[in-house]
Write a structure and sequence with these properties.
By secondary structure, the chain is α/β, with parallel strands linked by helices. The chain has eight helices and 16 strands. Bound molecules: flavin-adenine dinucleotide (FAD).
Amino acid sequence: MPEVLVLVDHVGGTVKKATLELLTLARRIGEPGAVVIGPGVELTALAEHGAAKIYLADAAELTEYVVAPVAEVLAQLVGETTPAAVLISSSADGKEIAGRLAVKTASGIITDGVDLAGGDRIVVEQSIFGGSTVVHAGVTTATAVITVRPNSVAPVAAPAAGEQVPVTIALSPVATTARITDRVVEEKGARPELAEAAIVVSGGRGVGGADRFTIIEALADSLGAAVGASRAATDAGWYPHQFQVGQTGKTVSPQLYIANGISGAIQHRAGMQTSKTIVAVNKDAEAPIFELVDFGVVGDLHAVVPQLTREIIKRKG
Ligand SMILES: Cc1cc2nc3c(=O)[nH]c(=O)nc-3n(C[C@H](O)[C@H](O)[C@H](O)COP(=O)(O)OP(=O)(O)OC[C@H]3O[C@@H](n4cnc5c(N)ncnc54)[C@H](O)[C@@H]3O)c2cc1C
């Protein structure tokens, strides 16, 4: 079975859920080899999710620079193992690493995949033009460099050997030109990161004001969800811009997306259309968002959302 390398994304030593999703996808197309870059990473989850090998490049130096050393480690491993694919999470950093790796190894690259299938050639599914078109693409080179959007698949455990393979590398002078001088940890509440959340509850112009976003937050908290917003809501100053979902905001692909008071403009759809289950609450039965939904409620969100929140809290006991 061909090897498939998975770049491990970690924060404070904890492996991110997006990596466990990549390991789950990697098992469909080969034998996963997890690539850990940096010291102090908790490795148990990697073996639990199918990593037959764990390539451990744990020199502290590798995390002192921006993305270039990561691409060099991966390029070295591609040279040594000729994997069928390298899977990387579709974050801003992930896409930059993937681009650099593809150039270094003369490999084909596909970004923002939402699904993968094996066979004679790896086929990557992408959702483009605001989700209106599905593309199936493959590369013609020996190794495919593929970035996959978080939440494209639910992580499934499948214990494997997790054999640790130490990796040493002499970084090139080019990789060490941009040093990280400081790291500031973003202050976060208890809610999950928007781009990685399994459930997203969003509000739009229909919410009607900044103070009224509390009902969106209450629904999100009852579900352990992240809060999102349409551009109309962020432009109005009702919710911070970093929570905007859409073409010029974040792309989310959660298991459940609940759109409240959002019309469903093409630019908003572009950021959420690949959500697995879509629910909308809108008082206009003709709103375009209803073309997308799995379940729609025609009604005033100020009546519907608090009822829904109460019911969820009641059922959770
Ligand atoms: C280049 C470009 C990039 C853009 N990028 C983005 C982007 O990234 N993300 C994004 O979201 N938009 C983006 N937009 C803007 C986009 O075109 C829409 O204007 C925007 O998404 C509309 O937001 P909305 O659905 O909240 O507001 P509206 O379109 O005004 O819709 C509000 C909805 O709320 C409903 N409503 C009102 N009151 C209630 C109530 N009490 N209860 C229930 N329903 C109610 C209405 O029926 C309506 O359907 C972009 C536009 C351009 C031109």
